[in-house]
Amino acid sequence: MANSNAVSLRTRVTKRPAAHAGATANPRVLPVSRPGRCAAAAGAGVFDQVDETDPFLSIDVFRRHGASIPPHPHAGCAVVTYLFPESTTSLRSRNAQGGDDTLDPGDLLWLEANCGTVHDDVPSDLCKTVRGVRLVVNRAGRHAHGAPEQTVLRAAAMPHWQAGALDLTLVCGEWDGRHVAPGDTAASECVPDEKPTTLLRLDWRADDLRALTIPCDGRRWVALVAQGEAALADHALRADGGGVEALLLPPGEWQMAGREGARLLLVGGVPLDEPVVFRGNFAARDEGDLINLMRRYQQGSMGTL
User: Is residue 137 a contact partner of residue 197, using CB atoms and an 8 Å limit?
Assistant: First the structure.
C-alpha cells in the first residue's frame, strides 16, 4: 500500500546480537530445495544444510483445495501440522496405529513418528480450502524408538496477545513467559525440562515497525513469511507467488517491519547436534539406518491405512 504514512520495510540491527555458541553472527537467508514437492506446498521446502537448521528438517507452507494427502510413511521425526484460522474446512489426520483426529481451523497436530508409521490427511470438505504450515523436526538417534503418538492442541488453548499493530499467537512451545504444549488444556501450564519446540505466529493488522528479541536459551530460530511482505534484520521477505524465504536468526534484538496483512512464522527448537540423513520422510542417523527404515516400511512393519 502506498501512502505518506506507510512504514518503510527497510530495517536494521538495533543492537549487537547476543553471544551464543555455534550461532551465526548475523541473520541470513537459508538455502532450500523442494524435491518432489506438490504444487500445494508453497513453503521453504527441505533445508539443504540441516546441520545449520537442526532440529528442523523442513518447513512447508501449504494451501490445498480439494486435495487429500494419501497414506505415506514417517519415521525418526516429529511432524507438526498447524491449520491457519482462515482455513474454510477441517482436516482429518490418521496414522496406522489408530490415531484419528480432526483438526479445525486454528488447531495443531503433533505426530511423533518414533519408530515409524503410515499417515494420511483428508479435508472434511473437498470443495473447500485448507491453509497452514507443516514442520518436520529431527528425532533420529534420540527419539526413534517407541510407538507413534499423535496429539492435538486446540486453538482455544493457544495464548493470543497484541503489540502495537501486531497480533501474536503462541501456537506451541514457550515465548516470553508464555507456555503451551500439545495436550495442554491451559495455556499457562509450564513446559518442564529443556526449552520446547516453539511456533509463534505474527499477523500485521496495519503497517508497523518494532523490535523482535530472539532469546539466548539454546534454541535455534528460523523465520519465514507465510503471506504478504515483511522485513527482518535488513532482509526482505516476500510470500508473493508462493516464494517464501526462510531466515536463520541468531539471538539478539532485530528490527522487523510488516505490511498490513503480512504473516510471519517464527519456529525455534533445541539442536540435537547429531548426524542425520533425511530422505523420503525418514530421518535416520546414517545411510545404514535409513536402509533399515525403508526396509521396515516395505515389509509393512510401520502399518497400513
Answer: yes
For residues 287 and 144, state if they share a domain. Answer: yes
d(CA 30, CA 171): 23
Cell numbers linked to 297: 516400511
* H or E segment to which residue 288 belongs: helix 287-298
Tens digit of each residue's pLDDT (9 = 90 or more) over 110-168: 999 999 999 999 999 999 999 999 999 998 876 566 789 999 999 999 999 999 999 99
Residue 102, in any domain of the structure: yes
- Provide the number of structural domains found in the chain: 2
Give the whole-angstrom CA distance, residue 207 versus residue 225.
15
Q: What is the pTM of this model?
A: 0.87
* Number of other residues whose CB lies within 10 A of the CB of residue 170: 21
For residue 157, give the 3-state DSSP assignment. Answer: helix
- 75 with 113: CB under 8 angstroms? yes
User: Which residues are bridge partners to 75 per DSSP?
Assistant: 282
Query: b vs e for 284-297, b when ≥16 Cβ sit within 10 Å of the residue's Cβ?
Result: bbeeebbeebbebb
Distance of CA 176 to the CA centre of its chain: 18
